[in-house]
């Protein structure tokens, strides 16, 4: 990425492994952080929408740790709107991934792989998405 890379509060929370509230508290008044939220009025509570430059996060980590740090920006999952065709899209994406990895329907191992993917995907729905990278899958053969 070129230019100024801005991170959301949830991305910074994932990088620092802290809550989003902690990120807002630590970065709300830091120079360079962009606040896109609303100001507080007598009848309305303040609403914060922060965009935090990668350089600000790196500087914060240097201040805490004392060593130069390069922040790895977490990958964002494709966001899709709720759609009646979501299942069709998911099937096509899985088929495409299978083809790219040499999975065919003829062999038994491929059928097992697709079944395992479906079961594990179903299990992931009960885990917060920001914790998916922490999950380690073990197969029955191990």
Low-confidence stretches: none
Number of helices in the DSSP assignment:
5
Shape: elongated
Helix amount, in percent? 40-55%
Q: In whole angstroms, how far apart are the ends?
A: 40 Å
β-strand percent reads 5-15%
What do you see in this structure?
The protein has 142 residues and is mainly alpha-helical. It folds into 2 domains: 6-65, no CATH class; 86-132, no CATH class. It is built from 5 helices and 3 strands, in the order βααββααα. It has helices at residues 9-16, 20-27, 54-65, 86-100, 108-124; strands spanning 6-8, 34-35, 50-53. It has a 3-stranded antiparallel beta sheet with strand order 1-3-2. Helix 1 (9-16) crosses helix 2. The longest helix is centred in the C-terminal third of the chain and has 17 residues, at 108-124. It is elongated, with a radius of gyration of 21 Å.
Compile the SSE list and pairings.
Blueprint: E1 6-8, H1 9-16, H2 20-27, E2 34-35, E3 50-53, H3 54-65, H4 86-100, H5 108-124
Helix pairs in contact: 1-2
Task: Give a short overview.
The protein has 142 residues and is mainly alpha-helical. 42% of the residues lie in helices and 6% in strands.
Q: What distinguishing features does this structure have?
A:
elongated, single chain, 5 helices, 42% helix, 142 residues, 2 domains, 3 strands
């Amino acid at each position: 990425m070129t230019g100024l890379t801005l991170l959301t509060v949830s991305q910074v929370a994932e990088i620092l492994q802290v809550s989003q509230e902690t990120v807002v508290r630590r970065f709300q008044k830091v120079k360079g952080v962009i606040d896109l939220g609303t100001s507080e009025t007598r009848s309305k509570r303040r609403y914060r929408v922060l965009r935090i430059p990668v350089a600000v996060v790196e500087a914060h980590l240097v201040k805490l740790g004392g060593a130069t740090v390069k922040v790895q920006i977490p990958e964002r999952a494709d966001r899709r709107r709720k759609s009646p065709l979501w299942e069709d899209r998911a099937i096509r994406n899985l088929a495409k991934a299978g083809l790219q990895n040499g999975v065919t329907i003829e062999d038994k191992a491929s059928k097992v792989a697709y079944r395992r993917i479906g079961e594990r995907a179903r299990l992931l729905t009960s885990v917060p998405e920001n914790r998916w990278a922490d999950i380690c899958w073990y197969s029955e053969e191990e």
